[in-house]
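Exercise 3.2. Students should predict the tertiary structure of the chain below and write it as structure tokens, then compare their answer with the key that follows.

Predict this chain's 3D structure.
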Amino acid sequence: MILAMVFACEKDEKGKATVLKKLVQSSNSIRIPIDSLTDNRSMQLAYHQESKDWFFNLNPKANEIQMYDMEDNTLRKRLRFSVEGNNSVGRIFSFYIHKLDSIFLFQQFSPNIYLTDTSGSVRKKITVQVPEMHTSPFVHLTYFSSPAVLEGEALVVKTRPADDHNQITNDVLSKRHLTYSINLNNGETELLPHKFPNNYLVDGYRFFDFSFAKGLDKWVYSFHSDHDLYYSDAMNTSLASVSAKSKYINRFQNFDLSGSREENYRYIASAPNYKSILYDKFKNVYYRVCYPEIELTSEEEIMNYRFDPKVFSILILDSGLNVIGETLFDKEKFLPDNLFITEAGVYLSKNHSDNPDLEEDYLSFALFELLDLE
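Answer key:
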């Protein structure tokens, strides 16, 4: 059963009445047939609305982006790219669809970005001048979702510290930036004044991966082990913070850098943390994916729940980042890192390994509608 936070009508910081929300599963779902070479868990996916509704899925095995027509869930095109040789783009790690004639391709560790379109031809190669002590663009659409953002002639992307992550200190981390902009004409970069929190590692070592989303008027960042969200109203201003705590997460755990493989896997599978922050442009709200702490009693459970969560919640925030609801998923089995947002609502993948109705030959999604809490 899906539970929601139960609140009476509340008021925001300005005294205005807040309408509280919940996510409720509808009877609608999507089943997209896939071939034997396509995994039923997407590494990168995107919904795009242009002339009609499109669903894009990355198949890394074939180095292709699959383009599905959501009217009948049929495959319309395979944008397949060469890894080496003429007109090659390397191994595709992620992508960003600005328009159907402007699709950006990213590799995982390369400074090169490739501009293409639905014809599959490479129109331009952009070599990024990666800022010192930061990494190449790290665009991701599922795990710690961090899509690229096009602002005029500049593309804003997530980056990571280039330091040794096992040796990094709180002082060093606090000086590292989260995003930078790329001039698409010449590859020049400028670090945004959006940095890691000042005291993130002060109480011990924790995973410091993060997700970010661009809303209507905010840049919002969510960190693995921090209840707060960090935001700015503009690209060129520093971050402020606001509490956005899940009712299901009370404390965080430190990561033992000298721990065994099993201890590391246990931390990944069971430690409480926040994953993606996502913006719903249709409802002008944000969703924050939360993983409560769970107890694991066997190595089999540890391995199973490293990637398929046993339980999670989705925190709902209004345009001012006020918490207006939280929906807990503790029985039905969904994959919160395989979700996309449409005008109808939030589509969550049903392809959890524990789902008794799992269909291996389909990308299956259940629709959750954002409704007022009664």
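Discussion points: Residues 1-8 have pLDDT under 50 and may be disordered. Residues 1-39+212-374 form one domain.
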